[in-house]
Amino acid sequence: MLEYKNYYKWVNCGSSSWRKDPELVGEVVLQNEFSDEDLRDLTRKLDDFLLLVSWAEGASCALLQIVVQADNYTEEIYRLDRGIPEVSKQHSFHNFLVDYQDISEFLSHAWKLWDKWEHKGLVRTALLANGNSGDFTMEAEFLRLFSSVETLLLVYRMENSKEFIIQDRSNLNVLKREIKKVIKSQAQLSAEDIGLLCENIGGINRVSLKHAFQIMVRDKGLQTSDLWPFYDTAGVYSLTKIRNSLVHGYGMRDELYDSFAVAIDNIRHYYNRVVIALFRWEFKRTRIPYPVSPSEIKKWQQAAAKFTSIESK
Predict the structure, then answer these.
(1) pLDDT by residue (tens digit) across 172-199?
(2) Which of 24, 147, 217, 262 has the fewest CB atoms within 10 Å, counting from its CB?
């Protein structure tokens, strides 16, 4: 059991303020001898737990130092590959994504799921996107959030057999052979064209990301109609189009940065909603806007229209 030995708080001192006990100190007492492997296992569990805390509290938490004490033995381990941004004085319970009154229950509920998750490594990668946005460019922040949504979608696909259309490999191989026969029978194609087309057959059995996303949204009962469309919908410039433009090396135009900031807000809404859905938690017990306000809807509609207008030129 992890027991915290102190706490931190801001203390007002006239015209200035300082923080008492800037780091939390926790203690784990082990009754039996433990190996280096035991220490690594315990450290990974603490890292995972603090990752859940970071997301729920809307602020980065990390295990930065470990002190191992035994009879006549003390070892200090500084984890130089870990870091957290300076805690803002304005950060409060109002910044939590899970209501502070429910956070203990959420963490207990989430940890039980986490402990059973077969693909927790993927979820871990996605939750790492919860870092301080001030450490990233706008483009990098958008892409890391988008990538995290796709990673969580992959978890859903793997857990629900939504990666592939045909599950029986022998049936799939028969289909591939028949498709290759049709391609090779086309006299108008050059040998190079035939080779290129045949190379693409390998991906024919994959469920498209768009379809898998739609299935997940429907299966989890997620409301998304209040957000900027994730994929192309009725001529609206989608978040996926923005993503594709960025990953293919096209920079964001200066006149679009205000609209791009709105896109980042929306991709973060998607990210948080998918996290909540996968952890099977109630939205009414969070501080996540669900749905967003009419003014926020109008804001993304105007931003999407601006993208359509400028990018079509």
Answers:
(1) 889 999 999 999 998 898 999 998 999 8
(2) 24
